[in-house]
Structures are given as C-alpha cells and as structure tokens.
Write a structure and sequence with these properties.
This protein has 3 helices and 7 strands. It has about 160 residues and is α+β, with helices and mostly antiparallel strands. The protein has one domain: Regulatory factor, effector binding domain (Multidrug-efflux Transporter 1 Regulator Bmrr, Chain A, Alpha-Beta Barrel). β3 and β4 form a beta hairpin. It is globular and about 45 Å long. About 20% of the residues are buried. InterPro entries: Bact_hydrolase (IPR046766). It holds the Pfam family Bact_hydrolase.
C-alpha cells in the first residue's frame, strides 16, 4: 500500500467518544479466532475478516462502508469473538442481535494499550453508577490505514445496566 491507497474510511471519533448508544436488535454476523494470551495467531484475523465479508456479501447484507462496525470481545486468553455489523437480520446468515445500552469511549493509541483503555472505560462506567456486562473493542481501521491517517482509534464499548 502506498501513501495514497486507503482501504478503510477515515474515522471520526466524535460520535463514539463519551456517548451512550441505545441499540435495539442491532444485527451482526459472528466468527471467532484463536489467540495466545489475547494476541491473535498469525493470519487468523485476515482469514476471519475474509470469511465475514464473504458471508455478508453472499447473503446481500454487507454494511455500507461508512457504517462499518467490527466488535471484538475476548472470550478467554485463547479465543476472541468478532461481531461484524450487517445491514439487516437474516436467519439464513445466522445473524445475532445486540440490544441494550452501550457506553463508548474513543481512544487513540496502539493495540498494546487496550488493557489500559478498558480500565479507563471501567472508571467511566462506575462514574455513571452503571455495571458493565461485557466489553467490546471496535478497531476502526487496519494498521496500514492507521499509519496513513496518523491515528489508531480504538473504541471501547461497554454493554451496561443501571
């Protein structure tokens, strides 16, 4: 990729920073990858993304590129689950939905700082007298586009209850 090539849209953190989203049946298709101590195994992310994008395309539910949303949740140090936002529910595509309140904060930094970003998000959740049920990370661009744009935005999203 040269400096004029872009595969990811430029991310605007404002709609995600310090915002609580109310999702009602937000549709996703799901896949998982193996990891070692929270680090994806080589090539696993690329293969998983190709599977998700192919599935969404094959079923005609691919999202608008401007609405791209890929959430990651570490189920364990050995497995990460990915939720790829799609345009609509479709039982044949085995879509799942997320509903509820989701607090989000946008951070700018390397992947290695995700544990610190989650700790910051935990403080934000507690400051609002809420409890987090799950934490998700939204990696907004690929590493090459993060370098091109000069920002590596990572949005931490907490599924919360009062």
């Amino acid at each position: 990729m040269n400096e004029t090539d872009v595969c990811c849209p430029q991310f605007d953190p404002a709609p995600w920073d310090g915002i609580t989203h109310e999702w009602k049946n937000k549709p996703f298709i799901v896949d998982s990858i193996p990891q070692f101590l929270h680090i994806p195994l080589p090539g696993a992310m690329d293969r998983m993304m190709k599977r998700l994008m192919k599935k969404a395309g094959d079923f005609g539910i691919a999202p608008d590129p401007k609405a791209y949303l890929l959430l990651s949740r570490d189920a364990s140090p050995w497995k990460s689950v990915y939720y790829y936002g799609v345009s609509r529910e479709l039982p044949e595509a085995e879509t799942v939905t997320l509903s509820g309140k989701f607090m989000s904060r946008a951070f700018d930094g390397p992947y290695s700082k995700v544990p610190l970003f989650i700790k910051e998000m935990e403080k934000s959740v507690k400051a609002e007298d809420r409890t987090a049920l799950n934490y998700y990370c939204f990696y907004t661009t690929c590493p090459k586009c993060a370098i091109k744009y000069g920002h590596n935005y990572i949005v931490v999203i907490a599924e919360v209850v009062e």
